[in-house]
Amino acid sequence: MQINKLTPTFVAEIVGAKVSDDMSAANVKTITDAFLEHQVIVIRDQNMSPVEQKKFSLHFGELAFHISKSNKNKEHPEMLVLSNKKVDGKWVGATNAGDEWHTDSSYQPVPAKCTMLHALEVPEEGGDTAFINTYAAYEALSEETKLRLNGVRGINSWNRLRNPRVKVPEQHGDGKSVYDTGAPDVMHPIARTHPETGRKALYVSPRHTLFVDGLPEDESEDLLQELFSVQQRQEHMYLHKWRLGDIVIWDNRCTLHKGMGGIKEPGIRHLHRTLMEGTVPV
Asked: Does pLDDT of 159 surpass 90?
């Protein structure tokens, strides 16, 4: 295996790995260490079945289930299908997945540790995924802002209908059956300490963070927009252009991501996604 950095500050590709095989403990450690060091890893040229992907995912943690009941793999409900493909006139997966900056399942009391996507079909143009290094975003804050965030929590929600920053995808109609599920809001630290590295990350997102706990609505939105603007600085970003067979694994505790769309017809982007369980943010 070779590990090559893709940006100066985060993201690395791994070439020469064969993750579908029974890997040695040493190779597993090389990959999981690279994941912690680089936050996002891209393992090239893989061809995994759903069973093989679930088995490989277990090296990072126990499998978690997505909150949505739709777009699941029929034989493997832990696996979400992300796809703009139709069969018999029906979508086979989520067409809009991740169309706003977010970190996966921050709307749950125990958010996911990491996410794995495996590319089974890729378009010639479009369908890229962008990532943000939220360690770097936190470190870029002024000392005054860092002090201000001590002990402050963000209120997070799955429900798009309560978030004026985002829209309901056409695929989901009025969105009530998908997003208005009655799932309670959850609160997490805005300055989150990573449980394995001890580093702080800026744990808010436009998609899921509705408010800052304890602030009036206008002050809350002003603070969040200030934090979002720091996160979205170009120097904190990486744009991933998918290749067939890519496995991308990212650390939800210290990154944000966004599906950039723009797939040029008749291109198909068809991905399998697994989530691994995390811990309560502190």
From this structure: no
